[in-house]
Design brief:
By secondary structure, the chain is α+β, with helices and mostly antiparallel strands. 24% of the residues lie in helices and 31% in strands. The strands form ten sheets. The chain has a seven-stranded mixed beta sheet with strand order 2-3-1-4-5-11-6, sandwiched between helices. α10 crosses α11. Bound molecules: guanosine-5'-triphosphate and magnesium ion. Magnesium ion binds next to α1.
Length: 534
């Protein structure tokens, strides 16, 4: 793969609710572009970005992962993110590393809770966005319904630039409102090829209606265009695209596309529009960094000549490789083998075997330009949310605000003597995944783990076994029982059991609150007694 310069790069987060078709879309885009030689699927466990053992087994994404589509002399870095809320930390990280986003929706399910969540993440970053309604070939697919839901639940500024030809089992083409042509797919199309034909007669009315809406929405974002449009002048395709791009950058327009990623339908048009409408790193707002150890702040832009500032947005630990670090360069450029500096940890690192990632594959590159996304293995002490810079500058970028855990369980080793290994494993897993936390609670005498959901913690326990050889099980955390005695009380309990032998007899007295009006007690649940066998 050749090295791409900053204006030739697009960093696109692919976000959406679980099972909306993101991973299938990313695989199809990389394949159709020719960058990936094989069209993989989630069902077969061959999708480019669902490559870990957990993902292949469960058939959904757990980790953020990168694929590349080289299209129109541009390198599109596609950041596939998980849709399940248990792994939403990675969706957030993907949004932070990107300059734009494709919000994927299922044509049958429409806007779901996960769609609203990622929409909110994109809002926080003011990311230019486009929508892709996938699974148009699935029974009960309904483009119009999804369009209405987006308008009502996410944004009234959504505007279709394509409409489907047929829906569900009848879905076989797309009408492009910019080119005013229909793309009809032949059954068995391998890489999104189509026959380009005039808009079929039965779609003419719909086409006219949507085309008019599209051009009016675009004109409405620019006074000069609006004047010309109202004066009866035709607005050319290139002008319309340029106006749409700047409307998207200001958050005034969100174009809507459709297709069926698994069949590769609609993927070529989407790639072209990603290149034409999504911003290059140079077209995004400037980023502020702090000089470590001082109050000095620097404003950075995606420029090779600027000081190096790259953010680690994901760390994965891979079998036989160790820690693999994914980073996004915000300023400056890097070379293979370069010495770099992690200022807050005061550790010198080296970019040995600098690579770009395409799923699990890593391709070594001589250098990476400003704005690009890179991957490097075996850094010494660099973790998710750290900033990489050079020793003379020592910069720190604002951290990604990962969500706080929402559930807690206790964890214990199955085999005595593995407690130290457990603690090391948990510590490493937290460095990899900042939405996972752990602590030893002395009062309960339990190790507690916290995460974003049951599935999240289940995966953590699985990783403990696979990566660190610690077999652990989860239990309910005990309750630390703390109350203030306000009065005094006493009670007696007797235990008698005739077992056929000598029998059992126990007599227990408890007195509480004597001697002090404010006496705190901490009781373990399993406490018990003084007994005397009869
Ligand atoms: N019929 C049809 N099925 C599809 C299409 N795209 C994806 N699927 C299926 O839909 C399911 C979910 O697809 P994924 O690509 O894994 O969806 P995702 O959004 O990545 O899901 P998460 O990773 O869990 O967030 C899988 O079973 C796919 O085979 C499509 O275009 N048509
Ligand atoms: Mg996925």
């Amino acid at each position: 793969m050749r090295v791409y310069k900053t204006p030739e790069i697009r960093n696109v987060a692919v976000v959406g609710h679980g099972a909306s078709g993101k991973t299938s879309l990313v695989d199809a885009l990389a394949f159709v572009a020719g960058t990936s030689k094989r069209h993989g699927t989630v069902k077969d466990g061959t999708a480019l970005t669902d490559y870990t053992a957990d993902e292949i087994e469960r058939k959904y994404s757990i980790n953020l992962a990168i694929a590349v589509a080289e299209w129109m002399d541009t390198k599109v870095n596609l950041i596939d993110t998980p849709g399940y809320l248990d792994f939403t930390g990675d969706a957030l990280a993907g949004v932070y590393a990107a300059d734009s986003a494709v919000v994927v929706l299922s044509a049958t399910a429409g806007v779901e809770v996960g769609t609203e969540k990622v929409w909110d993440y994109c809002e926080r970053r003011s990311l230019p966005r486009l929508f892709f309604v996938s699974l148009m070939d699935k029974e009960h697919a309904n483009f119009e319904r999804v369009f209405t839901q987006i308008k009502e639940q996410l944004t009234p500024k959504v505007i279709p630039v394509e409409i489907p030809v047929g829906e569900g089992l009848e879905f076989h083409g797309i009408i492009n409102l910019f080119s005013k042509k229909a793309h009809l797919y032949k059954k068995g199309t391998k890489a999104g090829e189509y026959d380009e034909v005039d808009v079929p007669d039965e779609y003419k009315d719909r086409f006219e209606k949507y085309s008019q809406e599209l051009i009016e929405s675009i004109a409405a974002t620019d006074d000069t265009l609006l004047e010309r449009y109202l004066g009866g002048e035709e607005i050319g395709r290139d002008e319309a695209i340029a106006a749409m791009k700047s409307g998207m950058a200001r958050g005034e327009l969100f174009p809507l596309f459709c297709g069926a990623a698994e069949l590769t339908y609609g993927t070529r048009a989407l790639l072209t529009k990603i290149v034409e409408l999504c911003p290059a790193p140079t077209e995004r707002p400037l980023v502020e960094a702090q000089k470590w150890g001082s109050a000095e702040r620097l404003t950075l832009q995606a420029d090779d000549a600027g000081p190096l500032a790259a953010q680690v947005f994901k760390t994965v630990s891979e079998p036989h490789v160790g820690d693999v670090t994914l980073f996004r360069i915000y300023s400056g450029a890097v070379k293979n083998g370069q010495d770099i500096w992690n200022a807050p940890r005061e550790v010198a690192e080296k970019l040995n075997h600098l690579c770009v990632a395409i799923g699990k594959e890593r391709i070594e590159v001589p250098e990476l330009h400003s704005g690009d996304i890179g991957v490097v293995a075996k850094l010494r002490d660099t973790h998710t949310n750290d900033t990489l810079s050079t020793k003379d500058k020592g910069l720190v970028l604002p951290k990604i605000p990962f969500p706080d855990p929402v559930i807690t369980v206790a964890v214990e080793v199955k085999q005595r003597g593995e407690e130290d290994k457990l603690s090391t494993g948990l510590h490493k897993l937290h460095e990899e995944d900042p939405t996972f936390h752990h602590e030893y609670n002395g009062e309960l005498a339990q190790t507690l783990i916290r995460g974003l959901g049951e599935r999240h913690l289940e995966i953590v326990v699985g990783r403990l076994a696979r990566k660190f050889g610690v077999h652990a099980q989860t239990t309910k955390p005990k309750v630390a029982y703390r109350e203030t005695f306000r009065g005094k009380s006493e009670g007696q309990g007797k235990h008698k059991k005739q077992t056929g032998g000598r029998g059992q007899y126990g007599d227990c007295w408890i007195r509480a609150g004597f001697g002090s009006r404010r006496c705190h007690a901490g009781l373990a649940c399993s406490s018990w007694t003084k007994s005397s066998a009869g």
